[in-house]
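Progress against Task 2.4 (sequence-to-structure conversion) is shown through the following example record, which the project officer requested during the mid-term review.
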Amino acid sequence: MFDLEQSRDALRRYEEALADGDRVKIVALVEELLDAGVAPLDIMTGIVAAAQRTVGERWQRGEWSVAQEHAATAMAMAACEVATGRLAKTPATRGRVIVACAEREWHWLPAAIIGCALRGGGWETTLLGPATSPLRLSRYVQDIGPVAVAISCSVLGALPTTRRFIETSTSAGVPVVAGGAAFGSDPIRAKALGATAWAADAQGAVDAVAALPVVVSSVPPLPQAPAREQAVLELSHRHLVDRIQQEWSVTANSEPGPGQATLRAFARDALPQALYSVWAALLTGDTRPLSETAAWMADLLASRGLDAPSAIEELTTVLATVLLDYPLSVELVRDHFRLR
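C-alpha cells generated for the chain above:
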C-alpha cells in the first residue's frame, strides 16, 4: 500500500535526485518502489509527472535553465523505461494500441506515460515516439491493424499535424484518442479536430480506449475559410515571426542594455507560441488558446523583471499589424489575445 506520507517521501527523494542530476538514484528509486508493490502508473503520475510539472514551473520562473529542464526530462524517461520494462513481463490481454506524437511534437514523456498506463491496463502497445510523420503512422496502421491510436500533443504548434494524424487514422477506420496540454482541460479542441475521444490524463486514456467503437468513419473536412487561413499562416510562419520580432520592443534588434540580451533571446524563443495560438483557434474554433498564451507569456516576462501587461498589450498591437492580410486572425487577436 502506497500511502500519502510514503508518496510525499518518494516525491521528495525523486526531486532531490533530479536537482543533483543523478540518473542512477532515479532508476534505483523507481525499482525500489516497484519492488515494494507500488503500481507503475502510480509512480509515473504521482511522482515522475508531478516532479516534471515542478521542473516546468522552475523554468517558467527563470530558476532552471533549458539545459536543466532537458536533463530532468531525460531522467524522467529513464524512470518511465524502468516502469514499462516491469510491465512488459506481464502478458497483454487486450488489443494493440499505437501511441505517438505527431510532427513538431517532441514532448514524448506524456505519451510514454500514456503508453505505460495502457500497458498496465492490459493493452498491447506500439510506441512510435515523438515527431512521427503521417506516412509512418499510416504504414503501422496498415501493418499491425491496431484497435486504436492514442495521440499526445503538448504544444499548440503541433495541432495542425495532429489533425493530419487523425485524418490518417480514421481514413483507415481506426478510432483516435487525443490528449495533452495543447487540447486544454475539456474535449472541445480534440472533438473539433475529429478525435474519436479525448482523455484528460493517463488513466482517462485507458478508460477512453476501452470505450471506443470498433470502426469509425473518416473525419469530415474542417471549416474551409479558417483552415485555409491557418495553412497560409503555417507556410508564412518564419517570415511572420521575423517581422514580429523586429517590431515588438521586447525582441527588437536594437542594442540590448545590461542583462537584456538573455531576456530578448528568451522572448524570441517564446514568441512563436503567439502565432501558434492563432493557428489553434482557427482550426478548432476555440479562442481560449489566445488568452491562455497571453497569460503564459506575461508570467514568463514578469518573472524576468519586465512590465508584462504593457509588453503583452504592445504585442497584441504588433500581431494585429503584422497579420493585417489575414482577416480572421486579426479579429481573433484583437478580441482575444489579452490578459483577463
